Amino acid sequence: MTKTYRFFYHYFKQKKCMSVHYKKQCIQCQNIVCFADTETKWNKIQPQLTIQGYASKIEHIGDTIYIHK
């Protein structure tokens, strides 16, 4: 069985792009293709809404990030 790690992503308003957080890294991109199951998480501070889940691998190709289950 492949080990999975928590990821989450949100809109990065200051830089006008998306921000993906995975394995203590913050990766900025324009597009996200997600093959993993996700759920929404509401926070009291910014970012107020994030999408989170578990992924085994993330690929950064061009300005798109692919999130694999």
Q: Which features characterize this protein?
A:
single chain, 69 residues, mainly beta, five-stranded antiparallel β-sheet, three-stranded mixed β-sheet
Structural notes for this entry:
By secondary structure, the protein is mostly beta strands. The protein has one domain (5-68). The protein has no helices and eight strands. It has strands at residues 5-12, 17-22, 25-29, 31-34, 38-42, 49-55, 57-61, 64-68. The strands form two sheets. The chain has a five-stranded antiparallel β-sheet with strand order 3-2-1-6-5, with no helix packed on it. A three-stranded mixed β-sheet has the order 4-8-7, with no helix packed on it. It is globular, with a radius of gyration of 12 Å. The protein starts with a strand and ends with a strand.
Topology diagram in text:
Blueprint (H helix, E strand, L loop, with lengths): L4 E8 L4 E6 L2 E5 L1 E4 L3 E5 L6 E7 L1 E5 L2 E5 L1
Parallel strand pairs: 4-8
Antiparallel strand pairs: 1-2, 1-6, 2-3, 5-6, 7-8
Radius of gyration, whole Å: 12 Å
Major β-sheet annotation = 5 strands, antiparallel
Strand % is over 45%
* Helix and strand element order: EEEEEEEE
- Can you count the helices? 0
Estimate the mean pLDDT confidence. Answer: 96
User: Which overall shape is indicated by the principal axes computed on the Cα atoms?
Assistant: globular
Low-confidence stretches: none
Distance between the ends:
12 Å
Could you give the count of β-strands?
Answer: 8
Specify the helix fraction band.
under 10%
Tally of domains = 1
| Order of strands in the sheet with most strands | 3-2-1-6-5
Helix/strand-derived category reads: mainly beta
